[in-house]
Write a structure and sequence with these properties.
There is one protein chain. This protein is mainly α. Helix content is 57%, strand content 6%. It is built from 9 helices and 2 strands. Helix 2 packs parallel to helix 9. It comes from Candidatus Thiomargarita nelsonii. It holds the Pfam family RVT_1. This is Reverse transcriptase domain-containing protein.
Length: 215
Amino acid sequence: MGTNSAFIWGKVRQLVFNLQKRIYKATKSGRYKKAKSLMYLLQNSYYATLLAVRTVTTENKGKRTAGVDRVKVNTPRQKMALVKDMLDTIQRGWDKYRPMPAKRIYIPKANGKLRPLGIPTIKDRAMQAVTKIALEPFYEAKFESCSYGFRPAMGCHDAINKIAGALLHKQKWVLDADIKGCFDNIDHKFLASQIDAEAKVFARENFCLCNTGDQ
């Protein structure tokens, strides 16, 4: 049973990855219309939905944490019910999808202060995950090779290796910067204004870009 399950998920990941590679190559070569059509295809696919649900209900650390609806998705039956619910939502149209408010909790920081954290519902997390699956290869084709944060197959060791190489050949300058209360204080409108025109069109046609608020 375990071996068969691993084989099935390997197939699902490969099918999704194959489509992501096509999006990456189309973006890299400047064929944005082709990339956008492939992103539509991937975002609405059964396999990407399966993978998104698995990510938020099985692999992520917060998989057992419910949102404002208090719904948890733990059993195989519940997970497949979520897949069906998502596919029904997607079929009705992304422009009609409305996420629920995020649940606001506070996490203690080392300095004794509290850091606010918004927790979406499991379904909203899965909808975000399937969107990430579609958008990620588009942006991976555009990101700088020296950017390492929150990217697939990259991490702190890659950054350390890059720094070590730079110190051998260049002036030894290190800049350490921190944005106070980053996620609460950073200008989200400015960030949105920096999104590529092609991705904006994709987002506008596929999502409800609204502020859901907190509860």
